[in-house]
Every structure is written in structure tokens, then in C-alpha cells.
């Protein structure tokens, strides 16, 4: 019987590129050839593309705070979708890759993630930023901030810049300047030795919204990454108008994007809520009500996310779901046709867009916390480029 290594090298590489990242990390110890293959930048990129396409397994990260809302908590889960005989069979396994997050849960909060790398920032020591790839168990402490004064609020973003093939961390920082607060921004390219200050191209009124949003911490930790840009849905106070802030990783500029003009519809005095999502590689919005069980969940999609500053005309109302009895809120698209939702009693359910029905997900109680994201278990290094 022919051995695996007797196969043509092209076929060996192709087969290995579909294997789980955790297995490939272990396979580095098999021989020098495999070590060389798995560390090759081209192979890492190929593995990432394949991992993105595989739909039978999804990895989720839930982040938030404990019962007393005093310490950050992270939970890593993997959903296996067997799809036998046309029926979905789900099983959820707690990921064994979270010890680092649990050891440092009092110190760091998961800010964002991209291509399997998580960006964590220090709760107490705000200048500390760590990148972590749980699949490869790599960690990297980024350089100190270029701002050497006291900070009182930070908005983080992390993503990939396809133009220069690199990853970047951006943060907008509120600096305590005595009687006034000053908003500044900086960028760190992963692999470089320092942060760089960048200009904030906002009007005074827009700066005021940003300063209030960051100061009160409203959604500044709920960042979404999509096709070379980071997005935040911000609101200075509950009664104020919400706005989306977009940061383009390539030109390193911030943009303000308005929500759809007619997103509110007929509110009838009810309180409506909005949350950001990523659907089919596009930015999307969930619009829903906690109070009105007769109101459907609306899904809006941004048709053009090329970085224009006024994008209200680029939204379309894609569909409405429900009303769904017992549903508290939508959380995210964990598959193209499946939405993870939370029920009134804290359970996790999945809504299938095609079948228009709900199915239970055996996610442990308490996992559905403040923020959630689908992540890819990749071989991407925290030390630099793919």
C-alpha cells in the first residue's frame, strides 16, 4: 500500500489544506517537510480560504461579563452540523482552547477578531493590547501606545488590510486633558515596532457623538470586520440617533455612515433596538423590539460598503422575520441561512431563513452574553503577514 508521502506533493498539500488547524499544528512535529509546508505563507493562505468555505463546522466566541457584571468572560464553542437525512443534527462542544482567556479574564476583554486572530485589550492597564490565535496557541503583546497620558475610554478595531497584505489594530482614545476630553486615534501594523497617530476627519458634531459614545462605552466593544473595514454601531445615549462608524484599513480613515432613513417604520411608541451583523460578506442590521412581540425582526443590508461617508441610500430592507413568539433578540448569522437567536428564558435557538422555522441549539445556558462572533480556526500568525 502506498504511503501518504508517496503521493505527488501537489496532492499532499491539497489534502493537508483541508485539515483542521489544530491537527496541522501538531503535524509540524512529524518531519521537516511537513513543518516547511505548514509554515509556508502560500499554504496558510490556502488553508484559510478552504476553512472559510467549509460549512459543516462553525466556531463561535461569546464574550461579555459574569453574573455580577464585574469581570469579563469568554466562551468558545464549536457547532457540528451533520445534516443527516435532510434533518439538522447539532452538537456543541466546549472548545479546549480558551485557558488563556480564563486565566486573564480579570485583565483582558476580547475586542474583535479577524481570520482566527483575536484582539484583546487590558481592562485595568489600557495600553496593553494582545493578539491571540487560539488554534495555534500563539500570543503577541503589541507595543505601548504612542499616547503617554491618562486615558478614560477606548474604541478598538482589528482587521486585515488586503492592499498591503497585513493586519492592523486601530483605536480611538479619549485623553484626559484636565477639564476637557480629547479624542485621538492611532494604528499599529502587526509586525511593526510602534503605533502611528492618524487624523480624525470628523466634524465637531460627529466628534461629540464619538466622544460621548466612547465615554459611556455604548457598543464600542461590538466591532464587526467586513472586507477590509471595521464597523461600530454607536449611540451617545439611548435617546440619541445611532450612527455607524467605518474605518478603512487601507487608507486608514474613519467615515460616518447613516442608518437607513426609513429604518424606524411605525414605532407606535415602542422602543426599537439595532445591532450590527455580517451576512454574505455584507454589513447588515437587525432591527427589533424587546417590548412588542407582534413586531417582526427586520434585516437591512448595505449594498455598497466602499467607504462613502453618507450611505443611507445604499441600504435595502432585505426581509422581515416573524413575529416570533418567545424570541428576545437576534444575535448573528452563524450560517448563510441560519440566525442565532436568544429566547426570553436564555436559551439559544437557530432560525432557518428557507424553512422559516426555529430549532434548538444545545448551547450551554449563560453563553449568550454581550457579544458574539463566528471565527475561523486558522494558521494565520499573530506576528505578521499571512
Structure description:
The chain has six helices and 24 strands. 14% of the residues lie in helices and 42% in strands. The protein is globular. It is mainly beta and 386 residues long. Strands 3-2-1-24 form a four-stranded antiparallel sheet, with no helix packed on it.
Brief characterization of the structure:
With 386 residues, the protein is mainly beta.
Keywords:
386 residues; mainly beta; four-stranded antiparallel β-sheet; 24 strands; globular
Residue windows where pLDDT falls under 50 for at least 5 positions: 307-312
Radius of gyration, CA atoms, in whole angstroms: 21 Å
Query: How would you describe the shape?
Result: globular
| Mean pLDDT figure | 77
Number of strands: 24
- Percent of residues in β-strands: 35-45%
The biggest sheet, with number of strands, parallel, antiparallel or mixed sense and barrel status, is: 4 strands, antiparallel
Amino acid at each position: 500500500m502506498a504511503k501518504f508521502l508517496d503521493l505527488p506533493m501537489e496532492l499532499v498539500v491539497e489534502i493537508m489544506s483541508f485539515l483542521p488547524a489544530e491537527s496541522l499544528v501538531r503535524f509540524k512535529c512529524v518531519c521537516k517537510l511537513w513543518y516547511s509546508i505548514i509554515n509556508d505563507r502560500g499554504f496558510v493562505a490556502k488553508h484559510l480560504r478552504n476553512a472559510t468555505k467549509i460549512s459543516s463546522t462553525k466556531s463561535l466566541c461569546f464574550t461579555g461579563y459574569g453574573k455580577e457584571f464585574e469581570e469579563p468572560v469568554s466562551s468558545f464553542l464549536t457547532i457540528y452540523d451533520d445534516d443527516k437525512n435532510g434533518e439538522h443534527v447539532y452538537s456543541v462542544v466546549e472548545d479546549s482552547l480558551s485557558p488563556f482567556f480564563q486565566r486573564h479574564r480579570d485583565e483582558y476583554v476580547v475586542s474583535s477578531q479577524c481570520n482566527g486572530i483575536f484582539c484583546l485589550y487590558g481592562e485595568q492597564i489600557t495600553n496593553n493590547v494582545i493578539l491571540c490565535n487560539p488554534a495555534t496557541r500563539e500570543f503577541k503583546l503589541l507595543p505601548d501606545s504612542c499616547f503617554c497620558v491618562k486615558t478614560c475610554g477606548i474604541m478598538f478595531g482589528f482587521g486585515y488590510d488586503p492592499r498591503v497584505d497585513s493586519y492592523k489594530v486601530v483605536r480611538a482614545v479619549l485623553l484626559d486633558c484636565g477639564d476637557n476630553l480629547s479624542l485621538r486615534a492611532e494604528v499599529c501594523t502587526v509586525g511593526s515596532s510602534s503605533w502611528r497617530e492618524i487624523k480624525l476627519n470628523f466634524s465637531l458634531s460627529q466628534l461629540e457623538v464619538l466622544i460621548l459614545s466612547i465615554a459611556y462605552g455604548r457598543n464600542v466593544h461590538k466591532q464587526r470586520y467586513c472586507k477590509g473595514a471595521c464597523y461600530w454601531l454607536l449611540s451617545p445615549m439611548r435617546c440619541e440617533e445611532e450612527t455607524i462608524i467605518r474605518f478603512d484599513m487601507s487608507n486608514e480613515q474613519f467615515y460616518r455612515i447613516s442608518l437607513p432613513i426609513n429604518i424606524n417604520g411605525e414605532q407606535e411608541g415602542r422602543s426599537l433596538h439595532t445591532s450590527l451583523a455580517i451576512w454574505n460578506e455584507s454589513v447588515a442590521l437587525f432591527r427589533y423590539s424587546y417590548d412588542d412581540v407582534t413586531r417582526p425582526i427586520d434585516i437591512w443590508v448595505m449594498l455598497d460598503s466602499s467607504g462613502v461617508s453618507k450611505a443611507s441610500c445604499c441600504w435595502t430592507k432585505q426581509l422581515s422575520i416573524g413575529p416570533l413568539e418567545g424570541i428576545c433578540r437576534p444575535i448573528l448569522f452563524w450560517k448563510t441561512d441560519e440566525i442565532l437567536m436568544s429566547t426570553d428564558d436564555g436559551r439559544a435557538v437557530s432560525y432557518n431563513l428557507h424553512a422559516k422555522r426555529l430549532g434548538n441549539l444545545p448551547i450551554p445556558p449563560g453563553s449568550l452574553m454581550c457579544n458574539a462572533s463566528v471565527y475561523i480556526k486558522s494558521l494565520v500568525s499573530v506576528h505578521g503577514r499571512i
